Amino acid sequence: MKNYDNIKTFEQLIEVEHGKIGTETRNIYEEKSQMFIISEMLKDARKEAKITQEQLANKAGTKKSYISRIENGRGNIQLSTLIRIFEVGLNKRIGLTFL
């Protein structure tokens, strides 16, 4: 059973639930979290542009099923394709930060 008695910060909660930074379970959690964020950003940007998944796919040179997979947080995304979807398909710039 996990001990939540001394938790005072969100980071402490994440450590209890998913382990310390660098552990396999924490890495899996971080990867899924990032995928969720990307999927939500894509959905929001597409809806803001008032276009369908199919229209976005056509503009970005990919398939509707690929857009759907990204928006549903499934599958691997190639960075070059993600950039093309946002920059060509949605006219948005992408900035990357490495921590």
From TrEMBL:
Residues 42-85 form the HTH cro/C1-type domain. It comes from the Bacteria. InterPro entries: Cro/C1-type_HTH (IPR001387), Lambda_DNA-bd_dom_sf (IPR010982), TransReg_Diox_bact_type (IPR050807). This is Helix-turn-helix domain-containing protein. It comes from Pedobacter alpinus. CDD domains: HTH_XRE. Keywords: DNA-binding.
